[in-house]
Amino acid sequence: MDEFDINEFAMRLKLTAYESYGNLKSLGEIAGIDNISIYTQKKASEPRAKVLYKLAKVGVDVNYLLTGKKIKDTYKEEYAKVLKKQVNKLIDTIDDISDKRPD
User: Fold this and answer.
1) Can you give the residue range of the structural domain that contains 79?
2) If DSSP codes are grouped into helix, strand and coil, which group holds residue 35?
3) CA–CA distance, 49 with 60 (Å, rounded to integer)
4) What's 39's domain CATH number?
5) What is the pTM of this model?
6) Any idea which of 18-22, 32-36, 53-57, 88-92 has the lowest mean pLDDT?
7) Is 20 in the same domain as 42?
8) Which of 13, 22, 41, 68 is the most buried (most CB within 10 A)?
9) Same domain? 80 vs 101
């Protein structure tokens, strides 16, 4: 399992703030997080669950902040795995039926 990288988190938090909220300060105000910049500095503090919760409540993709994978992409990957299993089951069923057919 990959380790949590606070520098990557900080970079993604800044990027999200600027892309979706104009700047970091605005995101902090909207989310109700005082001193949000402490999570983006060189020796940044790791975010606690309460901070992540506040970010999620205002629509920030916390999965992206933590892992770099957007939640919609994660769902697509999981759905693809499920579909692959279903296709493999169908192939096995077809093979079983084919094996039982008289020549």
Assistant:
1) 70-103
2) coil
3) 14
4) 1.10.260
5) 0.67
6) 88-92
7) yes
8) 13
9) yes
